[in-house]
Design brief:
By secondary structure, the protein is of the alpha+beta class. It folds into 2 domains: about 110 residues, Immunoglobulin-like; about 150 residues, C8orf32 fold, CATH 3.10.620.30. Helix content is about 15%, strand content about 40%. The protein has 4 helices and 14 strands. Strands 1, 2, 3, 4, 5, 13 and 14 form a 7-stranded antiparallel β-sheet that branches. A 5-stranded antiparallel β-sheet has the order 11-10-9-8-12, with helices on one face. Strands 6-7 form a two-stranded parallel ribbon. A hairpin with a 5-residue loop joins strand 3 and strand 4. Helix 1 crosses helix 2, helix 1 packs across helix 4 and helix 2 packs across helix 4. The termini are close together. InterPro entries: Bac_transglu_N, Papain-like_cys_pep_sf, Transglutaminase-like.
Length: about 280
């Protein structure tokens, strides 16, 4: 499926400000599931330098440095991408041991993806509890666990878009019984880590058969399954993701894959405004 994605963000400030260094994360991955044929990034005011770099997970990020002052800041990315059909993991043969907990001790690169989301590396007790419930009545298989866990999350939490604020903890999402896509992605990630499944937070786009009034960035979770590698699961959508998804970047921390990170220097109590538009054709 070939798509063009145009993502525009416009920041306005009531007075002139000096823009500090910014990190921009709007370039889609290019791999076996999504092939990027063209990418353009336009920024106004023109930056002093744009420095491309790779994140800890190998995703493209642009470090942008400015000089002078401005009362507006516009970022526009254009991506031409083709998504490929995702094989159904539940129908594929896999000779690896998929029993829980997964045997990943020999793969040091995955150890960081099973640590708890709390600053001290501990797991959220609420995530531990729902993970234990998902383990009940299954054959201790990672795919069965993921299916059961996502069904539990959908039953306990109503997906509700929320545009402002960081991702909630698992405890808050489950107690509020509502959550944005990023809240549900964190809940799934944390519950998987509780039982030793490497997992990470993903930011990207989801195409809709019936285009919404306004497209928004989406979030889901990727888990590492022996024999299958990193695969995406969306607890606020279809479960195992398909060719309607385009990943931008992934990380253990949701804030690390925000589309724009940075700050500005200006008068105290300065008012600012953000408007965005995502066009997918």
């Amino acid at each position: 499926m070939k798509k063009k994605i145009i993502h525009t963000l416009v920041y306005t400030y009531e007075n002139h400000v000096s823009l500090e260094e910014h990190l921009i994360c709007l370039k889609p991955r290019s791999n076996s599931f999504q092939e990027l044929s063209n990418f353009e990034l336009k920024i106004s005011p023109s930056p002093y330098t744009i420095f491309p770099l790779l994140s800890e997970n190998g995703d493209d990020i642009f470090k942008v440095v400015f000089t002078g002052s401005t009362n507006s800041f516009t970022i526009k990315s254009e991506s031409d991408i083709e998504t490929k059909i995702h094989p159904d993991l539940y129908q594929l043969r896999n000779d690896f041991d998929l029993s829980l907990p997964l045997k990943i001790e020999s793969n040091n690169s995955l150890i960081g993806f099973i640590q708890g989301w709390f600053p001290n590396g501990q797991h959220d007790p609420a995530a531990i509890k729902i993970a234990q419930e998902a383990l009940a009545g299954i054959n201790n298989n990672v795919l069965d666990f993921l299916y059961q866990l996502i069904e539990l999350i959908k039953d306990r939490v109503k997906y509700t878009p929320r545009h402002i604020g960081p991702a909630w903890t698992s405890e808050r999402t489950l107690s509020e019984r509502v959550g944005s896509c990023r809240d549900l992605a964190i809940l799934l990630m944390e519950a998987c880590r509780c039982v030793g499944i490497p997992s990470r937070f993903v930011s990207g786009y989801q195409f809709m058969d019936q285009a919404p009034d306004k497209y928004e960035l989406h979030a889901w979770t990727e888990v590492f399954i022996p024999g299958f590698g990193w695969r995406g699961f969306d607890p606020s959508g279809c479960g195992l993701i398909n060719h309607n998804y385009v990943a931008l970047a992934s990380s253990s921390k949701s804030e690390n894959v925000a589309p724009v990170r940075g700050s500005f220097v200006g008068p105290s109590n300065l008012k600012s405004k953000l408007e965005w538009h995502i066009e997918i054709t």
